[in-house]
Amino acid sequence: MAKRESKVLSDTQLRHWVNAGEPVAKSDGDGLTFTLSAAGLAAWVLRYRHGGRRGEITLGRYPDVGLAQARKDAAARRVQIANGENPSLIRRREKTAAVTALTVRQLVEDYRIKVLPAKAEKTRLSHNYHLDVFIGPKLGPMLARDVQAGDIIAMVEDAKKPWPTSALMLNTTNRLFAHAAGKRIITSNPCAGIELSAILGPRPPRRQRLMLTEAELRKLLTSVDTVGRQNGLCLRILLATGVRSSELFKARWSEVNLGEDASWTVPAERIKTRASNNAAFTVPLSAHVVGWLEELKNLAAGSDFVLPARQARRKAEAGGDTHQAENTLWAALNRLFDSPLTGVRRFTPHDMRSTIKSHLRAMGVDRDISERVLNHKLAGVEGVYDKGDYLRERRHALELWSQFLHACETGAEWNVTPLRGIAA
Asked: Which domains does the chain have, with CATH numbers?
């Protein structure tokens, strides 16, 4: 049996070497070595043989691991080697075990760092909401590997939310644990096989999108300023451009060109259905929309935002200049419907997109152009190969639509012959 080396290091020597700052590698016997790098990093290394091959493992940094503790840890590793085990393999398994021991709360933070930044802004807001309000409070303290389908079902049931909110909650949970499975923190996704209809019953019928008729548009546009000029201008612009309300509410004046060939560029990160190349979307602006935006610019009083926040609390929360909350528009619509407005069905901001799509088709605008106006992705093979922007055709279509809206607001007759083949 090989004779063991005597212990030769002392705490005094270790402190001296650290203070000197010179690189050293000093053995304490039996493979335990104190190392000090040129960068000043001191550590304990155990050098050993396993299966006829040399190996080494870092036991810890000095002075976090002192001389006595390093000797104790080295002795424990030597016992493993004597029993035929490889310390390096054991260390890798220990690291793997530490990863799989993540709590759901830790998993959520990792998901926010690794996954959410690549998502569209609206998706990030939705996921963060469900992570903060439902998943974190309910599952946060649990180890991710211990979460079972029953825990997720209980979370959905206890939340007592309607079908749409519950569906988004379950989707966020599914994506979170898919991330965990991808990192091998868990072996299978506990959301697999969960059906919301089995928890909450059949999904309620979806609300059908509606198209405001010409008669409704005439009544709406002559009454819309009763909820305030700024809200009235906002509704007109949404109706005339077909953009999503979130895109308008977060718009900045730096994105808007009111000069020749007027246009508004919506940044890629603000677009709900982003293209694979993350391209921005250019919205051509008709003469009437330019006039409305110029009026909003005067009302903005120097703000960077097209629709700046007015409430001191919201600006304080944002740390200064910011945009209005999107629910401002919903509140304005509710006030409009609470007024003596008759002959106009209750609609949502998204119904304005349905309205423009339907009327453009009735005016003879090509289907693909009307889809591009709304920044929809074309379906099937067309969506794969047709990458055209069709800015000129979209400008013509929106100018025609804007003239129609102007006629509705002013009470003028509209008897323009529908266009055919505008995309030709």
From this structure: 11-99 (3.30.160.390), 104-200 (1.10.150.130), 214-410 (1.10.443.10)
